Amino acid sequence: MKIAIGCDQNAYALKVEIMRHLDDMGIAYDDFGSHEGESVLYPNVALKIAEEVSKGTYERAIILCGTGIGMAITANKVPGVRAAVCHDVYSAERARKSNNAQVMTMGAEIVGVALAKKLVDAWLASEFQGGGSTPKVELMCEIDERYRR
Prior knowledge:
Helix content is 48%, strand content 16%. The chain is an alpha/beta fold. The chain has a single domain (3-147), classed as Sugar-phosphate isomerase, RpiB/LacA/LacB (Ribose 5-phosphate Isomerase B, Chain: A), CATH 3.40.1400. It has a 5-stranded parallel beta sheet, with helices on both faces. Strand 1, helix 1 (12-25) and strand 2 (28-31) form a beta-alpha-beta unit. Helix 1 packs across helix 5 (113-125), helix 2 (42-55) crosses helix 3 (69-75) and helix 4 (89-97) runs parallel beside helix 5 (113-125). It is globular. 36% of the residues are buried. This is Ribose 5-phosphate isomerase B. It holds the Pfam family LacAB_rpiB.
């Protein structure tokens, strides 16, 4: 699995820590910025990553900003992408297990490094369970298709 990762300037330090964590786990990733000292508009980062996830270039992505909310809103504008804000382990697990979210977002102003690593671990260890969630995810995909036009 190869992951896309990106952030705005508010979450740069957290992104660096998560990349170290991914390195320690042997998980490959591509860094979409921002880079040290660089100020960006977070929707540009979220859009670039979400488009790559939508095309299938990456199975999953981690996008960070101050709260994670703006990144999730932007990523969810791209058809085929399901992004979830994850600030606790249960939400990180359910993002995958119930919603088949390929993108997790977090806020550097909300979670610290230790919790962020736990969230990444939980999210990466979780897979879509199907079952009763399948019709819900299928409906999300149908809605995507309806508005893709």
